[in-house]
Amino acid sequence: MSRRLARETALQVLFQLDVTGENESLEKVIEHWTEEFVVSEKYKNFTIELVEGTLHHKEEIDKMISKTAHEWALDRMNGVDRNLMRLAIYEMLYYADTPQRVTLNEAIEIAKKFGSAESAKFINGILDKLMDSDEK
Fold it and tell me: What is the pLDDT of residues 34-46, one digit of tens each?
């Protein structure tokens, strides 16, 4: 559950940065949300890794999303969906410690909590297409 809390916290950070467009106060934003969600020090590092890694690879991740979601322009997607997919794709492709199937399932559960009624289905469809075939 604590890794899920770290993912949910990372989503809040990414969502805030996406909405506000600020990146200068990244440390303050992470600190705020880890305190708000009472993330332990152990999982705070996981949150930081997810946020920083996602931001570092954001451009290439956005290209993957755009290429996979043919009918949906990235800027027209629900902000929660967009940032949750970015986060999950980073974890699936660049953070080898977590099996891709686990990341996919976590993203679906988080989408049910924070997204719209269609978010889980939409995110599942995109992430499933990006998952390695041996993970399916």
Answer: 999 999 999 999 9
CA dihedral for 86, 87, 89, 90, sign (positive or negative): positive
pTM above 0.70, yes or no: yes
Segments forming the whole domain that contains residue 14: 2-135
List Cα–Cα distances, 97 to 46, 49, 83, 103, in angstroms. Answer: 11, 12, 21, 10
Reference 90, options 68, 67, 60; nearest CA is 60
Residue type, 71: E
**CATH number, domain containing residue 96:** 1.10.940.10
Residue the block writes with tokens 């986060």: 87
Distance between CA atoms of 123 and 108, rounded to whole angstroms?
A: 7
